[in-house]
Amino acid sequence: MDTNVLTPQVLVVGAGSAGVSAAVAAAESGADTLLVEATGHVGGTLAWQLLEHSAGFHDAAGNQVTGGVGQRIIALLQSYGGSPGHIPDDVAYTATRTPVNHAELAMAEAVLLHRAGVTLMLNTAVVGVSTVDSKVAEVRVETAGSGGTVIRPTIVVDCSGDAVVFALAGAAVQTDRPGRTQPVSLLLRLGGVDFGPLLDHARAHPEDFRAGSRIGRPDEDHVNLWGFGALLDAGHADGRLSWRRTELHLAGWPTRGEAVLNVTRTVSGYLILANQVLETVAWFRRYVPGGANAYLSAVGDRVGVRESRRILGLRTLTQDDVLSARRDETAIGMGAFPIDVHDADAPGLSHTDGLPAAYDIPFGTLAARDLTNLLAGGRCISTTHEANGSARITATCFTTGEAAGTAAALAALGGTDTHAVDVGKLQATLRSRGVIGAR
Ligand SMILES: Cc1cc2nc3c(=O)[nH]c(=O)nc-3n(C[C@H](O)[C@H](O)[C@H](O)COP(=O)(O)OP(=O)(O)OC[C@H]3O[C@@H](n4cnc5c(N)ncnc54)[C@H](O)[C@@H]3O)c2cc1C
């Protein structure tokens, strides 16, 4: 039986990149803010799926496009020594990439949530939503071991990645036909890597690494290598690797002897990925110079879902908007990451379409079309399949989360609904918060 009833002004669902930004922004804007998260951590996919780095803070020309809470998180993390900050991306996805230590990132985000005055409920999943008169009326959550709670929020911000609140509320969502949905991966982190021989190998075999790869030094805190195709071929030929890849991404922290590897891939789920993880470690020990003593220090605590449900908003960001770097008078921020689409069946890593410049993200991409107190931030905002290949990147998730959280607070405190948000006021507030591109 449900025993508790909570009535926050803003409820944020999901404590990933978008949800942390949304909750910090809503609370700092003066709203009584509750953040619920299904797992036992804050940090979401970036922290706990062990992503190689946060990406998308700059466009290809080096102009910064993500500020606000995202930049504050990186600055705080950097001050703890948990990130080298924005460093050049030598293979030119964009101008920079931002390596993070995952556990330190999560702790830095928790510190910011605490400072902002956010109430946090961990191990708490949204399991039901009811609507009345085109509004979310109640959100039902279950906390592991503690039972259910009914939440009656003024405004809800869905940062669940999967548009869970929208789906449970019966609000309009978009999905792609199964064959077009991108494959899933499980990232792994190795410890005990000796970067001296590894980097010597990369220097001796430039043909096996992406053009422009900068081979770093063992005394540095970041290394970024796309390649190892010849060694992967050898592992596939001798049966150590059961699936074929022509390239892997290694994001290394040489002074810590650690490397995150992005190489597993399937459309069939966790048990297949787990097998690929162990095969990768065995392959690394056998074939990669400096890898003999490597061990599996961590795996992502979740399967990495690139794309699932997306909301259907008042506006939908399209491939054309992204590729033409379209300006929009309702912009709440910008994105600049290439359209990065991973094919389920191809052995190569991805196809990418670079952008000439940053594009604007219209406010309407965050607002439910058919409910008037429901917003979204992060990977599940209203985009087409192709546009999602850019907008899902974590720097952009920080931006859309912050905009949704700020809009939620303005609506809750101003007694308006999400369709009637004063976009000019929202943009001015976002600019004052350091968000870049809120025109
Ligand atoms: C394999 C892979 C590699 C990637 N590489 C990169 C990269 O190198 N750099 C980069 O910037 N981006 C990368 N991305 C993209 C990026 O990681 C995601 O798109 C982004 O992290 C999404 O952030 P988010 O805040 O929208 O969602 P998430 O970070 O996924 O957060 C959503 C949160 O909602 C919670 N949640 C879900 N359902 C419920 C519920 N019912 N109740 C309560 N809570 C719930 C989840 O537990 C989760 O913590 C990669 C993605 C994948 C899959």
Query: Whole-number average pLDDT?
Result: 93
Beta-strand percentage range? 15-25%
Distance between the termini: 48 Å
Global structural class:
alpha+beta
CATH class of the largest domain: Alpha Beta
Q: Which CATH architecture of the largest domain?
A: 3-Layer(bba) Sandwich
Number of helical segments?
12
Do you know the CATH topology of the largest domain? FAD/NAD(P)-binding domain
Instruction: Supply Rg.
Output: 21 Å
Main sheet specs? 5 strands, parallel
Total separate domains = 2
- Principal-axis shape equals globular
Strand order of the largest sheet: 7-3-2-11-23
The amount of helix comes to 25-40%
State the CATH superfamily name of the largest domain. Answer: FAD/NAD(P)-binding domain
Low-confidence stretches: none
The distinct bound ligands, ions and cofactors come out as:
flavin-adenine dinucleotide
Tally of strands: 23
Q: Can you describe this structure in just a few lines?
A:
With 439 residues, this protein is an alpha+beta fold. Helix content is 30%, strand content 22%.
Explain what this protein looks like in three dimensions.
By secondary structure, the protein is an alpha+beta fold. Helices cover 30% and strands 22% of the residues. The chain has two domains: 4-179 and 306-432, 3-Layer(bba) Sandwich (FAD/NAD(P)-binding domain), CATH 3.50.50.60; 188-299. The protein has helices at residues 17-28, 44-48, 68-79, 102-116, 164-169, 195-204, 229-237, 270-287, 319-323, 385-391, 394-414, 423-432; strands at 4-6, 10-13, 33-36, 54-55, 87-88, 96-98, 119-121, 124-132, 135-143, 147-151, 155-158, 173-174, 188-191, 223-227, 248-253, 258-262, 295-299, 310-311, 331-335, 339-341, 351-353, 359-362, 374-376. The strands form seven sheets. A five-stranded parallel sheet has the order 7-3-2-11-23. A five-stranded antiparallel sheet has the order 14-15-16-13-17. Strand 5 (87-88) and strand 6 form a beta hairpin. The longest helix has 21 residues, at 394-414. The N and C termini lie far apart (48 Å). Bound molecules: flavin-adenine dinucleotide. Flavin-adenine dinucleotide binds at residues 13-19, 36-39, 44-46, 51-56, 125-126, 159-162, 164, 185, 304-306, 378-379, 392-394, 397.
